[in-house]
Design goal:
Blueprint: E1 3-5, H1 12-21, E2 25-27, H2 29-47
Parallel strand pairs: 1-2
Length: about 70
């Protein structure tokens, strides 16, 4: 039976089973819906040229560098 990724129940033990033993994973439908909602919000913010750390900026010491392309 695959490990279901739901955004809250992943343990170190399950992660080891996935990473080291090739355990199959499955995405919970409710988690997928949350991802879709967040994706729409992210795209809206990018269209509005909002600055979002790590999305259209660098990270850490590069945080003041901005990406001007949509990728």
């Amino acid at each position: 039976m695959p490990i279901v990724l739901d955004g809250s129940s992943l343990t170190i033990e399950k992660l080891v089973r996935i990473a080291r033993h090739g355990e199959k994973v499955e995405l919970d439908p409710k988690a997928l819906e949350r991802i879709k909602v967040c994706r729409v919000m992210l795209e809206d913010k990018l269209k509005a040229h909002e600055i979002m750390y790590g999305t259209n900026t660098g990270i850490g010491n590069s945080r003041r560098l901005f990406s001007t392309t949509n990728r």
